[in-house]
């Protein structure tokens, strides 16, 4: 190997080492960090946890300050029937209603029956009736009935850039969450509201 | 002497790279796949699944692995595991929408098997139909509707291009939407499925099937059930039956259309004949139509690839010697120029459906598989999966032909 080749090799190696130092090899290392849920940005055009948080907060604020709640002297009792997922993605809408219930409960404006745990409740009451001392037994037939039912649906519409010669594709998604409160006695809608947003994302169609 | 050594090393280098790429492409995944398929068609589902265990999952054919394993798990009744595979395949396919320059360039020097398997458009659509089937089999109506929407996106003309429609998947989408009380979108899917069929007819408002085209019977007959139901039978049973074995890519099998099949199934509930299945898709026909669309593009690519390989061989020939050029030609064209025949081989050949009256206390029904002249081929009692939502019962049956 002559001197020139040797020098070129050394310079090349130094350059690679310099570049590695610049990036700190971060791209090649596994990394974990905690994300601030209040400030995180969505990573795609899909419905994200940030949307779930924003929308439930907004609904809880609106419903707790609504005339429906104000007209009651005591906090009305509600049950959650669920939100129907009408999108093309697997979404845990129970997560959405759980958070909504938590936020509404924390305002003190609404009371909830635990409809999801009804079977467990009955089992425990049955156990207590047979096994617990009379003074600590939960009374049978004393549960409160809900006056209102919360339900809703999450819908989606998508638009994508047409098939043509291009290096990236653009997808635009529109989401709308409609919530409704139904009077269980009359079957009439007592309150309804909706939130909508659209998001666009561009993805490369050519990669290494 | 130096020239001879250089030419030898050039040939060896070139051949090693190309063979290495080819070996990387085929890897040991093909043996696992073949073993799993063979076990599947001999009814050894456990061994079939083990042959495709996660540690054997090759990155290059991972979509194909998951499709085959999803079908095997479905046949075993592991609907959740099957859905996990199909959804995993979908997620991976989403990643693969980005064209890989390295794989594209590699496939121009070696062959198309070097590219990651993404399946034919109809295979990707049927993947969603079979995932919806898993959800319906376990009563997860909303999840089935998610797959229905994915079917609709896949079959959108702007997305599908000239590839064939898949009426069975449309029917499945219509059913899933009907089950979540979305009748207008269900009717649209039934109508679009109907448009691709030539013999069988689907009534858009009721989703009921029959053969009225080319007969004296009016299509309006389908607004009623095909058989007079006994009094009190206000329920309906929708049975999706999958028969036969799909041809592999590259196999020549004659197929007349989506709704032509030499076999069908009769359905008996509480011992009474209630109707029969109608063919909605033939995988041989879908494959044939797909290959027609692909042919032009693939021929152009093959010609380009052979031209590139010939140029490489001529360059070696020119710079070194004739023998070295011939060796490179032998490796690049003679050994490596092979068609990509990878396909989802555990798929059934015929997808059929029936919508018949059912008693409210249905716990099982009998299926009698018959050939086109009415000869009985097989008789089975089906009690699982059998799910109900309001007055609609949904069930599936896959007949796996043994070798």
Write structural notes for this entry.
The complex is a heterodimer of chains A (208) and B (403). Helices cover 34% and strands 28% of the residues of chain A. Chain A has a five-stranded mixed sheet, covered by helices on one side. The model of chain A has no long low-confidence stretch (mean pLDDT 88). Chain A has 208 residues and is an alpha/beta fold. Chain B has 403 residues and is of the alpha+beta class. Helices cover 50% and strands 17% of the residues of chain B. In chain B, the strands form three sheets. Chain B has a five-stranded mixed sheet. Chain B has a four-stranded antiparallel sheet with strand order 6-5-9-10, with no helix packed on it. In chain B, strands 2-3 form a two-stranded antiparallel sheet. The longest helix of chain B is centred in the last third of the chain and has 37 residues, at 283-319. The termini of chain B are far apart. The chains are: A alpha/beta (208), B alpha+beta (403).
Could you provide a short overview of the structure?
The complex is a heterodimer of chains A (208) and B (403). Chain A is of the alpha/beta class.
What's the topology here?
The complex is a heterodimer of chains A (208) and B (403).
Chain A lengths: L2 H21 L25 H16 L2 H4 L6 E10 L6 H15 L3 E2 L5 H14 L16 E13 L7 E16 L5 E16 L1 E2 L1
Helix pairs in contact in A: 2-4
Chain B lengths: L1 H25 L2 H13 L3 H7 L10 H15 L2 H17 L3 E2 H9 L11 H17 L3 H15 L1 H4 L6 H13 L3 H14 L3 E3 L6 E3 L23 E9 L19 E7 L2 E5 L1 E5 H37 L2 H14 L14 E9 L6 E7 L4 E7 L3 E4 L2 E7 L5
Parallel strand pairs in B: 4-12
Antiparallel strand pairs in B: 2-3, 4-8, 5-6, 5-9, 7-8, 9-10, 11-12
Helix pairs in contact in B: 1-13, 2-3, 2-4, 3-4, 4-5, 5-7, 7-8, 7-10, 8-10, 10-11, 12-13
- Characterize the overall form of chain B: elongated
**In percent terms, what proportion of residues of chain A is strand?**
25-35%
- How far is it from the N-terminal to the C-terminal residue of chain A, by CA? 34 Å
Order of helices and strands of chain A: HHHEHEHEEEE
Computed Rg of chain B: 25 Å
Task: List SSEs of chain B in N-to-C order.
Answer: HHHHHEHHHHHHEEEEEEHHEEEEE
- Treating each run of at least 4 consecutive H or I residues as one helix, how many helices of chain B? 13
| Shape assignment of chain A | elongated
Note poorly predicted spans of chain A: none
The tally of strands of chain A reads 6
Q: What does the radius of gyration of chain A come to?
A: 28 Å
Strand % of chain B is 15-25%
- As a percent range, the share of helical residues of chain B equals 40-55%
Side by side, the strands of the main sheet of chain B go 7-8-4-12-11
Strand order of the largest sheet of chain A: 2-1-3-4-5
Low-confidence stretches of chain B: none
Total number of strands of chain B: 12
Number of helices of chain A: 5
